[in-house]
Write the structure tokens for this entry.
Amino acid sequence: MRTMWVRRFVHVFVPAAFVAAGQLQVPFIGYLTDSSGELRAVTGVGGNLLLSDPVAKSVRAAAFAGPFGLMHVGDRLLLVGPGLELIASMPGVSSEALVAVSPALPLAVAWLQASGEICALRPEQGGGSDCFPVSLEGTVQAIGVTSEASAMLAVERNRALWLALVDLEKRHTVRQMRLVGVAPPVALLGEEILYCREGELVVRRADGAEIRTPSPVEAPEFDLVGRGWVSLRDSAGARWILRVSGERLEVFRLPGGAP
Amino acid sequence: MIGRLALLAALSGAAATGQLQLFVRDGPGSERPAGHTLDFGSVPSGDVREIPLRIRNLGDAAVTLERFRIRPPGSPFTLDGHPSIPHVVAPGWNVDFRVRFRPPGSGDWSAVLEINELSFLLAGQSPPTAILAVEDRGQFQALSAGETVVFGRIERAGRLSRRFRLTSPPEATVTVAALSLDAGPFESSDLPGTPLTLRPGAAVEFTITYAPVRAGIHRSVLRLEQRSFILEGVAYDPPLPKPAILLEPETLESARQAKVRITLPAPAPASGSGELSIEFQPSVQPAGEDAAIIFVNGQGRSIAFTVREGDSAARFGAEEAAVFQTGTTAGSLVLVARLGAHTVRHTVQIPATAVVIDSAAGRRSAREIEVEIRGFDNSRSARELTFTFYDTQGRPLAGQPIRADVAEAFRRYFESTTVGGMFALTARFPVSGDPSLVGAVEVQFTSAPGPSAKRRIAF
């Protein structure tokens, strides 16, 4: 019966010129911040990547995924669109900040190390920020968005790594759980955790299942470049990019860097 | 001591006559009046000593120099840098020149310098000294102090030898008190020890060998008493062997990051540096630019490499291989390695293939379905795109597949892009009914090489 209903009532119409010139463009992946604070656009497909000339400077941290990006520039957090158009600005962030955006939700979050505050910025609300302190023991290593109303923090405490789920509406920590077998550096990709272990890059799903691939870097610095793309940087400045898609991880070398 | 030349004539003038006066230039900005005699002191036979002089017009009127010579002609004293006469010297002006003394043998020597009405005695001595000569094409050529003996060019670690001879003058016995060779790439196993006594006309020979261990221009000094002789040689590195280019993998296709290594058939006999570059010849139209064909660990389409002595492979900075992207355009990719005198080329074909879908995603909203496809068309010939929508049970919806002619859109896109065959395509489909009942869409391109692999996108 249901199939019949579909056949009867769902019709997919194709406009005559649906592939207009404006609908074909260079594949855009996101933005990458290098060690000198320059922000570059990343374009391409797997195995065929390009970096633009710097489009912004003095970028202290940045995360891009989907339609939004959150940048820490100078003493401001900047919520930007895919073309770096400014959506909102939050001043007074002079100390280190960890940033994250959701690839699917209109939500960006930041962890302010000095004040121990978490800030939520929502493009749909005009970019207004909502900051509140979170009482946590240890050092926050990474931040991620897990739902429209929650963020996850990876906290290093007593040589162990913990995940702290923070309710952004109720403004408190919902729960904390110890991550066994995971050590910094880590990146939080929604509810997934990216880390490096025994020469492999590992993505641990929320259900504990893991996918892995050989890592070109021993202890990389992670940056969220775009939806499903994370950059890796070694101490010598060489850069790679990891694509997380479905059940597969792929690592590609990014142009530039050593030698 | 043998007098070779008597004083020719009584000096006819004073050091200064009328408006002209002769000065000795002791150094830059320094001069002193010359006396009646210019004493060159003791100069070994074959050596040269110069005295810089200045004739100055101290009067209020111009003076014409009409006589400027040394008598007798052929004496060991010669003029250098003097003006040709007649030469007018304005009031307060001066003329600089030099007198050079090169004694041809031992003894006392003299001559007269005449400048207009002024006359000066030139005097010098040459003690009996050993004459140093170097063999040149079977003949020994006498050397002057300061002269350079060129050994020539040789490959590093090679050896070049020259024969030297020390000869006593025929009229005297000489004793060489000091003969030494400075440390460096010049060496001698039979350098005579000192003191060395040579009877009149006697000679002793020795060999100096240039044995450089590094490439470069080398100089050293052979010291004979107070005299120095420069030894010079040039060493160059042995030629590097012809490099080979190794690809990993050996066959390539578009959108790949491949490694390339430079290897040598034998350990490098010397260190060197070279460059590896990429040349690309597209085989499709419109070819356009493909900016992604680059070395990702280099600068654009070239990367420098180094070869260390003893190594059989080049290094790219700290890395053993260069990594390059093959781009997304079909054609011939030529890797060119330049090392020393060698230029090696390795050509690999990037075959035209069906369109490759790298990633695809779909989104549903209340009124439409959006499909985004990212991929590349390395043949630049995409002409049709087929969509087949399925319901949530995996069965095709009515009216499927939907075919779209994309040839013109892609042609215009490829004419303007500089990133090869990469593209991101967004297609939006208005939906009547409940879009949530659409479960998936399958997409497939058709281009000149054939249909692409189908990609199913679940919603």
Q: What stands out?
A: The helical segments of chain B are 407-416. Chain B touches chain A through 63 residues (CB under 8 Å). Confidence is low (pLDDT under 50) at residues 1-17 of chain B. The two ends of chain B are 116 Å apart (CA to CA).
